[in-house]
Design goal:
The chain has 429 residues and is of the alpha/beta class. The protein has 17 helices and 14 strands. It folds into two domains: 280 residues, Type I PLP-dependent aspartate aminotransferase-like (Major domain) (Aspartate Aminotransferase, domain 2, 3-Layer(aba) Sandwich); 135 residues, Aspartate Aminotransferase, domain 1 (Alpha-Beta Complex), CATH 3.90.1150. α1 packs antiparallel against α3, α3 packs parallel to α12 and α15 crosses α17. It starts with 7 loop residues before the first helix and ends with a helix. Bound molecules: pyridoxal-5'-phosphate. The site of pyridoxal-5'-phosphate has 16 residues, from α4 and α5. GO terms for molecular function: cysteine synthase activity; O-acetylhomoserine aminocarboxypropyltransferase activity; pyridoxal phosphate binding; transaminase activity.
Length: 429
């Protein structure tokens, strides 16, 4: 196991992996196997009793997938982690040990669009619900928490770009209410912010974005700080009391700071099956090796492009917390001091028609529903991801008809600016 006090870029290359014990292979091999031969019947029994850590079946654990979970855990400064089949799977996996029918979460209203749908619609089928609040109104956050609330949820840097959550203030409220703060750290990555250092209990990622970094894998990760006292109240019986779904094991008493992680594997992955595949885990591990290098370039480019756009007469507004004009600029200095990410929205003069022309006129920037790629990406939410909403809802979601969302890549910044320049000329002609 790698020494987790090493620097970020060293951990990004080494954490969670050592030369393959069987072959000496230096890169993490793709263990493309479903099952693992037990040494004997006693070994098998010990594995099933969680008395010994090892591999049983790849829906639960796999060496390549474990290397990924452990690497992200090291980067986030957590105690344990679980790799999942997607970012949305990671969100369900984070909630699963905490929730029961009738329980709710209190969530920031500023979220990735798919998460708003998952929380407002789909989780209701499980008897769970979400109350959405403006997390800048701390009194509203406190007021929304009731006896059935089991978590507070937010994103470090939230869609549609520019909004930075006050993690320290939200962690304090969660603490006082005896519930965990769950932070989606996808758009910041642990290079810009480690939410656990700001008091978060659980961190979730869409590994699909910056962690893999090149748009090749759909994946997710949950990281547990290991610091939450699940037994301090009767709110979390799956962890603090005998778990009927795992022959009456009391996870917190038996496994301490690893209770959440082991429950997520032994019950969550076992029964929900939202498992990462070994090949996807391998690609994501390769991506993470260069996370620090890429993020440095992503934020440098994003700042330069945002500054250029803000001065351009064809632009109405740029929402990027890295700009002094942003209402979240000061908070960004505290939460994401190395840079406010590489995702922001731009309001274009000429409205809906100009935005549609802009996305059609660009050559370097790709028009796609993704973010966090090495390539610069653009989308016009009002004609795509947010077209089901009426105009008032679009405006509220930060996706007004005159707004495009840009995810800045790691290309030469002069080329990104030149493409936007020619696209804006075509769009506003
Ligand atoms: C993409 C994304 C998700 C969902 O992740 P998938 O891997 O697409 O399931 C969740 N949160 C944020 C902030 C995202 O950008």
């Amino acid at each position: 196991m790698t020494d987790n006090t090493l620097g970020f870029d060293t951990l990004a290359v080494h954490a969670g992996a050592e030369p393959d014990p069987a072959t000496g292979a230096r890169q993490v091999p793709i263990y493309q196997t479903t099952s693992y031969v037990f040494r004997d019947a006693d070994h098998a029994a010990r594995l099933f009793n969680l008395e010994e850590v090892g591999y049983i079946y790849s829906r639960l654990t796999n060496p390549t997938v474990a290397a990924l979970a452990n690497r992200v855990t090291a980067l986030e400064g957590g105690a344990g982690g679980i790799a999942c089949s997607s970012g949305h799977a990671a969100q369900i996996m984070a909630l699963f040990p905490l929730m029961a029918p009738g329980c709710n979460i209190v969530s920031s209203s500023r979220l990735y669009g798919g998460t708003i749908t998952q929380f407002s619609q789909t989780i209701r089928r499980f008897g769970w619900s979400a109350t959405f609040v403006d997390t800048d109104d701390l009194d509203a956050v406190k007021a929304a928490i009731d006896d059935n609330t089991r978590a507070l949820f937010c994103e470090t840097i939230a869609n549609p770009g520019g909004y930075v959550s006050d993690l320290d203030a939200l962690a304090k409220i969660a603490d006082e209410a005896g519930i965990p703060l769950i932070v989606d750290n996808t758009t910041a990555t642990p290079w810009l912010c480690r939410p656990i250092d700001h008091g978060a209990t659980l961190v979730v990622h869409s590994a699909t974005k910056y962690l893999t970094g090149n748009g090749t894998v759909t994946g997710g990760v949950v990281v547990d700080s290991g610091k939450f006292d699940w037994s301090a109240s009767d709110k979390f019986p799956s962890l603090s009391q005998p778990e009927p779904a795992y022959h009456g094991m009391t996870f917190h008493a038996a496994l301490g700071s690893m209770a959440f992680t082991f429950h997520s594997i032994a019950v969550g992955l076992r029964d929900l099956g939202m498992t990462m595949n070994p090949q996807g885990a391998h690609y994501t591990l390769m991506g993470i090796e260069t996370l620090g290098l890429r993020m440095e370039r992503h934020v440098k480019n994003a700042k330069a492009v945002a500054e250029w756009l803000e001065k351009d007469p064809r632009i109405e507004a740029v929402t990027y917390a890295g700009l002094p004009s942003s209402p979240w600029h000061d908070r960004a200095q505290r939460i994401v001091p190395k840079g406010a990410g590489a995702l922001f929205t731009v309001a274009v003069k000429g409205g809906y028609d100009a935005c549609v022309k802009l996305v059609d006129s660009l050559n370097l920037l790709s028009h796609v529903a993704n973010l966090g790629d090495t390539r610069s990406l653009i989308i016009h939410p009002a004609s795509t991801t947010h077209r089901q909403l009426d105009e008032a809802q679009q405006v509220k979601a930060g996706a007004a008809p005159n707004v495009v969302r840009i995810s800045i890549g790691i290309e030469d910044v002069a080329d990104i600016i030149a493409d936007l320049d020619q696209g804006l000329t075509a769009a506003t002609a």
